[in-house]
Amino acid sequence: MSESETPPMLGSPEMEAQAHALVDMVIENARQRLVEEEKEKEAEHQAQEAVMGTQKYGYYDYLMLEDKEEDYAVKNITWPRAEEFNIKVGDEKINEFIKTWDYEGSWLYCIDFLQEEDHEYDKRYRYRVRWSIPTRRKPIPRATACVYFTIEVSKIKPKHFPVQVYYVFETNKLVHRPGQSRFREKWLKDIIESKIIAMETRKVKRPPCSGHTFIMAEAFPGPSEESFRYDLLFLSSDEDKLWTEENLVRPLDERGFATCLPHRDFTPGMPKLNLLHDALKDSLRTVLVISPEFLEDWKFKQALDPTFIDEGKLIPLIYKKCKALPEALSKVVHLEYSEQVDPCLLLDRIARAVEHTVGKKCE
């Protein structure tokens, strides 16, 4: 990579594509090597088996560095045959395999199916496993660590043959195979630590709600448009404003979004109502952190403008249970916070809502 090129951001689609490309390279190189081996003489093939140990693990060992320890039994599971495989089975088997790893109980993970790819000799199913350590103080963690799984279902092998499985840890170029390398919790911790360090070195300056020009730092080429000062405005009750800042606003700030939070960004001495109206108009989307207290708050009543609802600018997030939502909001798709839901999903859905809005305006 030349000095002028910018490396892909951690957790970005580019990083995900690199992980998939690494697995594809291993599969294609392994298949090419198999074709070449079939053309060799039997004596040469047997000599190669003795040197490389292919009788134990197969031809993939030529291409991947394996982490084997004589004193540690690497655990594995029984993977499905090609004829048994489907997307749901893949999800279940990845979950079963992860349970063989040794890690602290404070880790949480979720498995997402990404896509199915049809190739000449096989189909490849891509999954992502996102890891995080939420706490009571920070139920929405600052960063996650991703592991990308690829399950290869051959079109040319007999249907009773098992599927082939590969996985890559985010930021790492080593392609792993189940049963051939020992999982280390430190790998996940290193990924998260490196992300947090990157966030700290790429802080975005926050604009005040007073009409000053805002320019986002080039390190975070975020989704803001010139016609809007903010990507997201967050409104909540006074009781919930610190939770909102700590668990929603700051993580999205660190992702590069331009956010506005009244108690943090409104200019002292200016009329609150005028500042709120300006912020509502100057924000792509407004997140309403719903609680019984917020439903009685003056900010909520101002935000509940039919124009904003019709334009799809409001994102209701149910933080605390309420007896009933106002009829106008009951027709809007909302998010819901709970301790059972992966908190990173909330951030991802809010981020996608902004990106979707920008995409529509650019069409």
Automatic annotation (TrEMBL):
Domain TIR span(s) in chain numbering: 228-363
GO CC term, one of those recorded: cAMP-dependent protein kinase complex
GO molecular function, one term: protein kinase A regulatory subunit binding
GO terms (BP aspect): signal transduction
Transmembrane portions of the chain: none
Stored PROSITE patterns: TIR
InterPro entries: AKAP, AKAP_28, TIR_dom, Toll_tir_struct_dom_sf
Protein name per the record: Hypp7303 protein
